[in-house]
Amino acid sequence: MTDSASPAITLKDLGKTFAGAQPVRALDRLNLQVKRGVVTGLIGPDGAGKTTLMRLAAGLLLPDEGEIRVLGQDMRDASLAVQSHIGYMPQRFGLYEDLTVQENLDLYAELQGVPEEEHAARHRELMHMTGLAPFTARLAGRLSGGMKQKLGLACTLLSSPELLLLDEPTVGVDPVSRRELWAIVYRLVKEQHMSVLLSTAYLDEAERCDDVILLHEGKLLGQQAPQAFSTPMQGRVWEVSAALGKRRLQQQLDLNPAVLDALTEGRKVRVVTCDAGTTPETLVAGLPEARIEAVTPRFEDAFIALLQHDIHKPPAVDTTPTTAIDRDEAVIQVQELSRRFGDFIAVNKVSFEVRRGEIFGLLGANGAGKSTTFRMLCGLLPVSSGHVSVAGVDLRKAAAKARARIGYMAQRFSLYGNLSVQENLNFFASAYGLSGNTKRERIALALEDFELTSYRETAAITLPLGFKQRLALAAALMHRPDILFLDEPTSGVDPLARREFWWHINALAESGVTVLVTTHFMDEANYCDRLVIMADGEVLAEDSPENLREHFRTAGETEASMEDAFIALIERHKQEAAA
Amino acid sequence: MLQHILALIIKEFLALLKDKRSRFVLIGPPIVQLVVFGYAATFDLNRVPFAVYDEDNTALSHLLVERFSGSDTFELVGKISRDADIQPMIDNKQALMVLHISPRFSDDLAAGESASLQVIVDGRNSNTALLALNYVRTVLLDFSADWAKQQQRPPPPAKLVMRAWYNSNLVSQWFIVPGIVGLLTLVVSLLVTALSVAREREEGTFDQLLVTPLRPVEILIGKSVPGLIIGLVESTFIILVAIFWFDVPLRGHIGALYLGLFLFLLANIGIGLMISSLSVTQQQGLLGAFLFLVPAVILSGFATPIANMPEAVQQLTLLNPMRYFLIIVRGVFLEGADIKLLVPQYWPMAVIALFSLSSAAWLFRRRMY
Amino acid sequence: MPQPASQLSRRRLAGMVRKESLQILRDPSSIAIAFVLPVVMLFLFGYGVSLDAKDVRIGFVIESPDSETSDIRAAFGQSDYFEPVVFHTIQAAEQAMREHDIDGIVWMQSDFSHRLHAGLGAPLGVIVNGVDANQGRITEGYILGAWQTWLTHYTERRGLPKAFPITLEQRVWFNPAVNSRDFLVPGLVAVIMTLIGALLTAMVVAREWERGTMEALLVTPIHIRELLMGKLVPYFVLGMGGMLLTVAMAVWQFDVPLRGSFLVLLVASALFMLVALAMGLLISIVAKNQFVAGQVAIIVTFLPAFILSGFIFDINSMPWAIQLLTHLIPARYFVSILQTVFLAGNVWPVILPNAAALLLMAFVFLMLVRRKASKRLE
After folding, report:
1. Which of A282, A310, A338 is a domain's end point?
2. I need a surface site. Which of A87, B33, B87, B308 has the fewest CB within 10 A?
3. CATH code for C56-158?
């Protein structure tokens, strides 16, 4: 039925535009092929067109122009036939949460026409592969994120598809589950010669693919093996350490015109230069006790280099604190904090302290309890037991005035969607008690600092995600708070916008603002001074990222990656729980 | 404090008026309901189809039939000549009513005997049947009075002089249209408020609000004032349409009406905000509003009188602010009622408003998941 | 190998039906919408909506009481319809009327008996509160009836010529007691089931879009017809369950006679349920969002069914433009069938055309659903 000699997917001049008040050109005349029998990564920041391409390949959308052939068949007229031979896992896994694991599998087996006699054997095989066998009677909604992801994958594998399409399968899933997913995918490719197209916004996952398609704003930036992307970067990537605070060091390096990108990595700063000719001496000139060494380039370095025209570094701002800051003062104190929802313990006896001027991270996968903890800190959720104090008061009980000291940025950058940027800022300024000239000045400054001036009259909902994030931060900073709460502030935002964002946060911390941030990006832990790692409502570790990385390093390496440290912690936790 | 509230009010208005969907909620239902209720919701009888089985077939019986077919209320749709034809006529809904004039009708009448006229009515719609019978009776009364005068017979020793106060022609529209003022005010103010907190919760901005130094009281006022203003504007519009388009007389003092309107709006807003604070998503808010709206309208006396309900249900209506407002609006429009007369209607609404508003403010912070 | 996808597969359909049924059983809100909501609404409407004026409070102003005036009062007092209250001056009665203590006044002036005996056409003044025009008219009718009874007796007793030469012999077919509940409850079944049917399905497709399961479903080899049938069948069964429950309540709780055959009722209900579900499905497919779907379902099904179906307001009395509009409301046809089957019996000339209209509407809506539903996302 399908032509096994043809590539898994072929695009010819493929274009797709979504109509609307402001038409979106999702894919712009793409020409490419996805090879058979390998894992192809579809990589690109948010809004690159990854999901649109996935949906076109699954037959859910029709191209406006050009052609898409899947397994040798034109998707315009043969989509129903092709759909018997592909497996597709949408974002959020496409599971019925009110059906059990078994019922989900049965449904998809029936829909995919798996012969009844093969069904049982196939089922056993998949349960074994995903490790879900003990949970067949559990409702899918009660599974953890990682288990849902595996069940979603199992559902698409029932009919042994020739081509597997996975749309952002690793979003919000803990690193352990991510690793397991990759292991399964590679087994499938090896044992069944399956072709896999997998999209992801995590750039580090690109390196696990055989072939990478890099998309940006609907255009193809390149398609080759991940190493082929990073090899040309040889000689442009360095690691610098110096006798400076890591934030200072990062700032200093970032201000160097020869530096394209400077990223904190443990105690060191990873630097990508604008071109290969830059000598290490020019990079470290003026830095005390500087040490510099060349490192192997990564995919992310190549990505940054490819998009360097879109990078604009925020203007330098003087961040020297106006008054001396007592950096030992504990601003946020959490003791034995617990929160139960019925029988479910979302947060279990969590304790930690955050000191003034610190960037403090709450790390964990979705469902680890970090948002619940965060909401209790902000006074948005009553505590079940334990004690919380922020700037010496419990925000839930404190007078309204106490809240004037904190800034808050909610998940998904909650702003009034149909109000314009200016109207949003006006409202938040007044809500924080600003008026008259102060209000006007602060708003003007915010528009300028966050480069929002040209979007003044735009409704917040239509802003690009990166600008929404800026606006949300601008609103939260309107009243110059000295404690800032950030809930998943970089979720879904592309790597460039994330860098800019952290640049602002670093500057704030330098000037003495205390920042509490939750994130599920392990690499962002590097920005924190200290952090807690949470899983199943409990704190697994509280330390600085440098210490954690050192503690969990394997023999031969100087430091473990944050992800390795996280995985080691989870495994230790599991063992302890078993024992 | 004032500045906080002002900022909140401006924001609420902008959020409300810039959203296509909520603009629709504010404009669509009022117009549709005004037209539909104003014209379709009528208990008046027009063009009742009737058939005649005239066994008498004399000048007198023709005269009687003319009395019916000549009025706007009845419309002659057929003549029957056999008993057996009556049943299909009614069963098949060709005629709502059959007038059966007996063969001795004019003879009996002339002889001073009791002349009998049989009327068969389709009782499937009992209200129409009842009203049609009343009309028949009135027509007959007029007919026999005229006939008696013509025959120079003495008039009956007593006569009935009937008069309807407030609505002398008993026009349904005069009853329904002022009711729409209440209905619409309820729907609009409830929808505006029931979705407002839920929408912010869904979008995450309510957390944002709670974290600012705004106090619950300020949020409460900020959320109430737009509902109040929109409610006042819309009901003023309906009131004007009622007066100038539907020609419903406004006999009482407008102040008495607006005092009632104000309290009614406060009560609705309180209830709407309560529903909103209890719901996590807009869908729950909508469902909650619907679950309140339907009984509130049914049990308000909008279409059918409260007095006809069973005692227990009548007690239940005491919790319904619309019940009081309907009395006020109809009282002011038709009865010319003044503030003093309406005091028993004002204070229960004030109590409901006070209770619901303070519960809503309390729920803002308590209700979290 | 998987079977060719182009033809319908019983196995896929069975899989869809089982999945939907399981979801219904697990989701208390579907059960609540199908069974609890109709019961609550039927109770509410069945008891809350009544047009029967009983115990109308009538103020009797008797300026000089004697045997004649007490005769009249007694004639009114015998009737179930009135609750007489006696006043001595018209001013007191008028004040009571203003304060809504009484709904009507019967006024016998001081010279009433004198003029009656003299045959001078003694005036019996009647004032009713006309604010509620319908109730006012019904009250007038009751008063007129009571007065006629009294006057007929009076003239007979005194041997006077007949006051009313024509006697009216009235027969109210199907509902001799003129009980408004018998008329309202069958119509209510239609109004409630319109809402229930549309609400049930309005949410189900939208829910799949919202939860992201629709995408996974569409990429399987399932045929769009299997998908739609898989949704319709379980909700049809559920909706019919709710329907039977309301019919049972109408018969046993509200004592409405069921004169036609149950089978006819069942077939008509099935047709109507199909229309309501198809409407809901259409809303759901177009809206793709549970919130909008719910809102639209309420606006386009409930309000028209309530006002324009003839369930309470007689369609014949509406202006012609609105009468035309009512032809687009499926509930109109079902109300007609229900009122006939319950109260009149199997009257085919009423049932058949209405059933045909329902069939046509079901067909049109299902075609629209089929056309709007596609395996693509756009």
Report:
1. A310
2. B87
3. 3.40.1710.10
Write down the pLDDT at residue A40.
94
Interface test with B, best of C316, C324, C326, C343 (most B CBs within 10 A): C316
**A450 and A373 assigned to the same domain:** yes
B3 contacts in chain A (CB < 8 Å): 430, 433, 435
| A370/A482 same-domain check | yes
Residue B278 near residue B364 (C-beta atoms within 8 A): no
The answer to whether residue A235 sits within a structural domain is yes
A321 assigned to some structural domain: no
Task: Report whether pLDDT(C5) > 60.
Answer: no
A422 in any annotated domain? yes
What mean pLDDT is predicted for residues A144-153?
86
What ipTM did this prediction achieve? 0.84
Q: Break chain C into its structural domains and give their ranges.
A: 10-49+179-372, 56-158
Strands A385-390 and A291-294: unpaired
**Which of A371, A406, A423, A430 is the mutation pick for testing B, counting most B CBs within 10 A?**
A430
In this structure, the answer to whether residues A334 and A448 fall within a common structural domain is: yes
Same domain, A242 and A136: no
CA–CA distance, C104 with C124 (Å, rounded to integer)? 13
C366 has pLDDT over 80: yes
pLDDT over threshold 90, residue C100 = no
Whether A99 sits inside 8 A of C19 (CB atoms) is yes
Together in a domain, A517 and A441: yes
Task: Give the per-residue pLDDT at C3.
Answer: 44
Q: Which residues contact A119 (CB under 8 A, 6 or more apart)?
A: A109
Q: Which A residues in the span 148-177 are in contact with C, Cβ-Cβ below 8 Å?
A: 152, 155-156, 159, 165
B258: tokens are 């607006």
- Please give, one letter per residue, the 3-state secondary structure of C68-134: HHHHHHHHHHHCCCEEEEEECCHHHHHHHHHCCCCCEEEEECCCHHHHHHCCCCEEEEEEEECCCHH
Tally of domains within chain A: 3
Give pLDDT tens digits for A186-233: 988 898 889 999 998 788 888 889 999 998 888 898 899 988 988 888
Quick one: CA torsion of A466, A469, A475, A478, rounded to 10 degrees? -80
Q: Are residues A518 and A571 in the same domain?
A: yes
* Residues spanned by the domain of A402: 330-578
- The enclosing domain of A247 has a CATH number of 3.30.70
pLDDT-based confidence at residue A315 (cuts at 50, 70, 90) = low
Q: Tell me how crowded residue B311 is: count the other CB atoms within 10 A of its CB.
A: 7
